[in-house]
């Protein structure tokens, strides 16, 4: 028996709805593909939305043909060396080097970052030079001409895994047919989580994770213990998010690489996610934190003589320790004390719009994955991306939000931006009731920013105690 939100989803959205539980039953196993790619494959081989034995066999044959394991890397290279054409499903991307005038194709499966790709293929698939694109590439090998030359892998043809367009206006109009609780369940299920296993508060935390993908330059921190699924959304939901896990983060990677005149991650993705932030180290000269402070405040960046602007949101996720009551052990003295010192500067933290209480989420269990209908991953990804530039939501929030005891400009800007993100996610048609707007947009936005204000006071008493309210 379908839940009410599932039946409505099928009635109004039809072909872009999928049973989200199929991804765990399809036999992808340990294949390193994000959920939205797996669901794209499922949509091609399921029969009337059902995973039959024939579907399983066709999926297995497809994976065997196009998605080799990492251990087969040299086997594939050997096929190329024998001048055979090889077709591989991979997450292809292109970097542009202005110094030598080259477009370099990255093929992760083969650990190759300097393959050749024609301008025509790049022009037909512009996402290759921004967020990268999953698809099937036909590859062949061009041997060296002489003793001083090097052989090179070339891409002959590319078939991307992506929908051609999204009718955002229709998506927005269909929202009116759902109760708010139904729409929330549809959002949560589309993210891959089981709405029946979450409280309303936990569902709102999950939806908050969408905001950096849906609202430009929205900066969020989530602190939680291990195993709560913090990075799942960004790893699996959208090609427009880029997760950077641990290690050293350099200004060249984030902003601009002066050596090859290549733009950094913030110019190529909707959201940059620093996972396991407690293990990240900055640069000794302090250029990273200085650049981040400028970017988080204004959207501007500069390196050397290169200056620019970007719209990428910024997410930091860190593991924290909980006590026996499942509360952060440093709740009284400061939650940020478990993240690296170079990220504890109050001037930096003040530029974070909201702090997600990830410790309120339970550990991921067998009941966590969705067993319901939801939007296909590639469709949902494109909708979130399209909503970033949707008109009217920011103006709606500015005209209808009434904050109390909120004179600080950064507080007001943060709450407005967060509330706009919630409006886009939950009321894309901009038709909430007054009570719904306050409950589902303003209240969670204030709570997210209030946590940042509270932590600032713990770190530096010069930040006065402020309790923000709303009417």
Care to give the gist of this entry?
By secondary structure, the protein is α/β, with parallel strands linked by helices. It has 17 helices and 18 strands. The mean pLDDT is 90.
Tell me about this structure:
The protein is α/β, with parallel strands linked by helices. Among the domains are: 82-160; 193-360, Rossmann fold, CATH 3.40.50; 391-470. Helix content is 36%, strand content 21%. It has helices at 4-13, 35-45, 53-66, 73-81, 119-124, 168-174, 180-190, 200-208, 211-214, 232-236, 251-254, 287-298, 346-349, 377-387, 393-400, 409-426, 434-459, and strands spanning 17-19, 86-97, 102-107, 112-116, 133-142, 152-160, 219-224, 241-248, 256-257, 262-263, 271-281, 300-303, 306-309, 313-319, 354-357, 373-375, 403-404, 469-470. It has a five-stranded antiparallel β-sheet. Strand 12 and strand 13 form a beta hairpin. Helix 7 packs across helix 8.
Task: Report the top-level CATH class of the domain at 193-360.
Answer: Alpha Beta
Give the averaged pLDDT, no decimals: 90
CATH topology of the domain at 193-360: Rossmann fold
Q: What is the first-to-last residue Cα distance?
A: 41 Å
Structural classification: alpha/beta
What's the main sheet like? 5 strands, antiparallel
Enumerate the spans where pLDDT stays under 50 for 5 or more consecutive residues.
Answer: none
Number of strands: 18
> How are the strands of the largest sheet arranged?
4-3-2-5-6
CATH architectural name of the domain at 193-360: 3-Layer(aba) Sandwich
Q: Measured on Cα atoms, how large is the radius of gyration?
A: 23 Å
């Amino acid at each position: 028996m379908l839940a009410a939100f599932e039946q409505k989803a099928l009635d109004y959205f039809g072909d872009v709805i999928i049973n989200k539980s199929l991804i765990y039953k399809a036999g992808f196993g340990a294949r390193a593909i994000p959920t939205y790619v797996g669901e794209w494959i499922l949509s091609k081989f399921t029969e009337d939305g059902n995973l039959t034995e024939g579907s399983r066999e066709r999926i297995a044959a497809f994976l065997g043909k196009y998605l080799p394991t990492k251990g087969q890397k040299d086997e594939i290279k050997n096929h190329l060396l024998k001048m055979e054409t090889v077709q591989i499903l991979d997450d292809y991307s292109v970097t542009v080097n202005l110094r030598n005038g080259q477009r370099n194709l990255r093929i992760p499966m083969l650990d190759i970052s300097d393959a050749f790709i024609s301008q025509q293929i790049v022009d037909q698939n512009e996402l290759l030079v921004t967020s990268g694109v999953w698809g099937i590439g036909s590859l062949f090998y061009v041997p060296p001409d002489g003793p001083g030359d090097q052989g090179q892998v070339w891409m002959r043809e590319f078939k991307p895994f992506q929908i051609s367009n999204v009718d955002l206006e229709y998506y927005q109009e269909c929202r009116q047919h759902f109760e708010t609780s139904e729409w929330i369940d549809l959002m949560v299920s589309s993210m891959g989580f089981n709405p029946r296993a979450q409280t309303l508060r936990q569902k709102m935390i999950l939806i908050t994770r969408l905001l950096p993908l849906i609202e430009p330059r929205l900066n969020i921190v989530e602190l939680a213990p291990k195993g709560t699924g913090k990075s799942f959304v960004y790893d699996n939901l959208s090609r427009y998010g880029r997760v950077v896990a641990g290690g050293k983060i350099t200004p060249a990677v984030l902003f601009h690489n002066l050596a090859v005149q290549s733009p950094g991650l913030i110019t190529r993705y909707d959201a940059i996610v620093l996972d396991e932030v407690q293990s990240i180290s900055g640069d000794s000269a302090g250029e990273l934190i200085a650049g981040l402070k400028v970017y988080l405040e204004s959207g501007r960046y500069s390196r050397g003589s290169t200056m620019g602007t970007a719209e990428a949101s910024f997410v930091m996720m860190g593991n924290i320790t909980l006590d026996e009551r499942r509360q952060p052990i440093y709740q009284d003295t400061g939650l940020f004390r478990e993240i690296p010192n170079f990220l504890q500067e109050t001037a930096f933290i003040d530029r974070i719009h909201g702090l997600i209480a990830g410790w309120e989420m339970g550990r991921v269990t067998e009941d966590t994955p969705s067993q319901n209908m939801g939007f296909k991953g590639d469709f949902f990804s494109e909708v979130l991306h399209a909503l970033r530039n949707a008109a009217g939501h920011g103006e709606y929030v500015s005209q209808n939000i009434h904050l109390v005891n909120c004179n600080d400009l950064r507080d007001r800007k943060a709450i407005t931006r967060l509330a706009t993100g919630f409006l886009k996610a939950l009321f894309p048609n901009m038709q909430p009731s007054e009570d719904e707007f306050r409950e589902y947009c303003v209240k969670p936005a204030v709570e997210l920013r209030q946590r940042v204000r509270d932590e600032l006071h713990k770190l530096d008493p010069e930040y006065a105690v402020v309790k923000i309210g709303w009417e």
